[in-house]
Write a structure and sequence with these properties.
Number of strands: 10
Helix content: 10-25%
CATH topology: Hypothetical Protein Pfu-838710-001
Shape: globular
Radius of gyration: 18 Å
Largest sheet: 9 strands, mixed, barrel
Distance between the termini: 47 Å
Structural class: alpha+beta
Order of helices and strands: HEHEEEEEEEEEHH
CATH superfamily: Hypothetical Protein Pfu-838710-001
Number of helices: 4
CATH architecture: Beta Barrel
Number of domains: 1
Strand order of the largest sheet: 1-5-6-4-3-2-8-9-10
CATH class: Mainly Beta
């Protein structure tokens, strides 16, 4: 409980002001082979939740690309394609920054814009990154981005359960990474405030008690590393 209180106190000092995104996605991920719940069903059982619908299976591919014209200075640039068995195909360009942006815009042809704070609960204190995304329903990125697909894919299945906190829904994702390793992730969207963080921290603590050892690596870091010799 001391560790939880310390994490919340740190988060309170780090909460945004002014033009920062007002909403956040809280996430925590772990290697099930190292301990903790090993399947999405075990996660929900541990939390006393039930899936609200059948799961969705998706294939995720990341791209290499130069910074698009107008990209925020110093931002990490991430481009990925997600194709799911419900028929949806989505291209998403994301800028991740250490500080809020006063102004930004999507490159031409990159669809709708959104922003949020990515809050990761890993081995250390909660991490915070401001994320600005451009989302397009399309099979491939616009040619203007000059993107090159990485020679590997990740596969993910997602189930959603209704809860009483955050946005009211908790997502559980089971990732099979390039090379075959698995990672599980729980995440929830909500306001970027201490109450939403505390609610998600309580979920994380229950999984930690079940043996989960949380990681500091992001999904992008995990899913975009291709094994040597990976074929396209």
């Amino acid at each position: 409980m001391i560790a939880v209180a310390a994490a919340l106190a740190l988060a309170l000092r780090l909460l945004p002001a002014g033009g920062a995104p007002k909403h956040a996605e809280y996430a925590a991920r772990w290697d099930p082979s190292a301990g903790g719940p090993a399947t999405s069903a075990e996660v929900l059982s541990r939390l006393g939740l039930a899936a609200s619908a059948a799961g969705t299976a998706c294939e995720i591919r990341y791209y290499d690309l130069p910074p698009p014209e107008g990209a925020p200075k110093g931002a990490a640039v991430i481009l990925r394609r997600r194709a799911c068995d419900d028929g949806t195909v989505e291209i998403r360009l994301k800028y991740r920054t250490a500080h809020p942006l006063d102004a930004w815009e999507c490159p031409p042809g990159l669809g709708s814009a959104s922003s949020e704070v990515d809050v990761g609960l890993g081995a250390e204190a909660p991490s915070r990154v401001d994320a600005y995304a451009c989302t397009l329903s399309a099979d491939a990125p616009p040619a203007s981005l000059r993107a090159s697909a990485k020679p590997c894919v990740s596969r993910m299945t997602r189930v959603t359960a209704r809860t009483g906190g955050g946005s009211g829904h908790l997502k559980v994702e089971d990732w099979t990474l390039p090379g075959g390793a698995r990672r599980l992730e729980v995440s929830q969207k909500g306001r970027d405030d201490v109450d939403a963080l505390a609610a998600f921290q309580a979920v994380v603590e229950r999984l930690r008690e079940a043996g989960a050892r949380f990681l500091d690596e992001s999904k992008t870091e995990l899913g975009s590393r291709c094994p040597d010799g990976a074929a396209r």
